[in-house]
Amino acid sequence: MIDFIHSEIQFFILCLTTFFTLINPVGIAPILLVMTERFSKEEKINIAWKGSLTAFITLIIFSILGSVIFNIFGITIEAFQIMGGIIFFRSGFRMSEAKIGRSRTTPMEREESQESDDLAITPIGIPLIAGPGAITASMLLSSQTPQLYSYATLGVSIFLVLTVVYLILRNGGLLMKALGYTGMRVIQRLMGLVLMVIAVQFVINGVMSILSPLFSPSL
């Protein structure tokens, strides 16, 4: 019994630290807040909920069926990284260039307000929160479960980390009030640049992973 508790605690700490590090709720918080800044409080709460829920479902599915899904469709982690990079770059470019008003008065802003559900699913849910790293981790950790019921431990750790993400998104208005309108505009452009750099790095990692076997010395 003692060995069981010890092994489960170790596995729980491993899962929790791994997902918290890869998802990095504190690090992505400014990006998430800026991406949802143009929406109303109710819409932000809805985006926070759906984005976190999307990421949770995605990580749970891949922790159980990840390798099967990838094999069936012939998908690789490298392809997922490149796809995520493209989505990131598009979102980052819009963040760095767009000038969003205080209220939705233009047709584009009204159209964007209707796309909050799409924004919550992608790019916020996938791949900003549930990115290639987190998905890979869910697949690897599921293969290292000490016991069958350790899947519950894995699920709880994913749930706890995404709860933190949800709370950050839900309460982002407090940070926005502290920064003010001008501060949010500055952070919007800075985070747009950061997001584009992350996007480029995602693509580089995916391409390098594909090309590295070609340049490895044969044994």
Give a topology summary:
Layout lengths: L1 H22 L1 H11 L5 H33 L3 H21 L9 H7 L2 H14 L2 H11 L7 H21 L1 H44 L4
Helix pairs in contact: 1-7, 1-8, 2-8, 2-9, 3-6, 3-7, 3-8, 4-6, 4-9
Report mean pLDDT, rounded to a whole number.
79
Shape: globular
Structural class: mainly alpha
How many DSSP helices? 9
N/C terminus separation = 47 Å
Domain module count:
1
Classify the helix fraction into a percent range: over 70%
Q: What's the number of extended β-strand segments?
A: 0
Element order: H for helix, E for strand? HHHHHHHHH
Describe the structure.
The chain starts with a helix and ends with a helix. The protein has 219 residues and is mostly helical. The chain is globular. The protein has one domain. Mean pLDDT is 79; it is low at 99-107. 33% of the residues are buried. The protein is built from nine helices and no strands. It is 84% helix and 0% strand.
Short note summarizing the structure:
With 219 residues, the chain is mainly alpha-helical. It contains nine helices and no strands.
